[in-house]
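HUMAN: You are asked to prepare a plain-text protein record giving the amino acid sequence and the backbone structure tokens, both parts labelled.

ASSISTANT:
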Amino acid sequence: MARWTGSRVTADRAYWAGRILQAASIGKPLLCPFCDAPMALEVPWDIDHDEKRIDGGALGRANQRPAHRACNRADGARVGNTRRSRARRRIR
């Protein structure tokens, strides 16, 4: 599994930061896929994967999208909690 630090992550964040700025400059801001609020560099953000990595999603930009950090991490917690709950039910 790929690491979440290093030159690849830095390059991907730079790419998406440019896209966020470009979209805002033409009056069509990128929207957070979870809350539909406009993305802005002033608000902490993460790179979300359209198809989750745990479900076999790719690392490439075609599977990426920017999302507000709070929204993305809440979704990750929800997915993780659901998976743990299902695993516990199978064990019983």
Summary: The first helix runs from residue 7 to 25. Residues 7-91 form a domain with the DNA Binding (I), subunit A fold (CATH 1.10.30).
